[in-house]
């Protein structure tokens, strides 16, 4: 059993190099900020795989902590995967969010903290003749473009001795990819978290390779924020991250409770959510082993005060 994993934060931010594409979200950004130690409102982006954020929303611990700093309201905004969340953060609609390690490459944001990552897997149907990732040449492989699943797919291909052009990429969100997988319209699917566990439990998907069995595919979850927000409201951001870190430790010691809550929120079977928890535990342990054995694993940076 792995030890509870704390969200790690550092003192200085770094920026990514490409600006996010312009979007209709920008017109909603507004000018609700003021100079000071606490933001008047605080918006948190989350995904279905973010069990800790579901827990934080339900317990309202962040709300209570930030209210003492002068934050009047905490908003929670759901996203299907990381790229749309990045767009919202870049536009100022969301202040902080949790994504995989790939989406931040495409946006001008700062790393706020690192956290446990759900396991990612490259799946095929039970009836598929493919047994190895090396057999994906010419196959239709689905994943969310610009997501951590995108990076996992590239890593899996590289380890298998294949190039990106050797397969047929199919860019789908998790919901659409799930339907395509069940109907047989794709040959393989790279996915993480609840969808990963659901595909194995409900659709009897078979794993070709994953981030728990092959440390070369190890992934990270990262909390990100817009640079301007991190610079102006560092105290607000640090307080929210501290609350999340405490919840992360609690969740590591109460996995069944977290699974029940996540199942209630997402509508997935509780056993599927428990399976997701096991994937997270294994992925966290794998990443620790990877970080101990190599200096090349990503090192997220953090907020400014």
UniProtKB/TrEMBL annotation:
Residue span, Solute-binding protein family 3/N-terminal domain: 41-254
Annotated segments matching region Disordered: 1-34, 280-305
SMART domains: PBPb
Keywords: Signal, Transport
InterPro entries referenced in this protein's UniProt entry, alphabetically: Solute-binding_3/MltF_N, SsuA/THI5
Low complexity bias (residue ranges): 293-305
Organism encoding this protein: Pandoraea cepalis
Protein name as annotated: Putative aliphatic sulfonates-binding protein
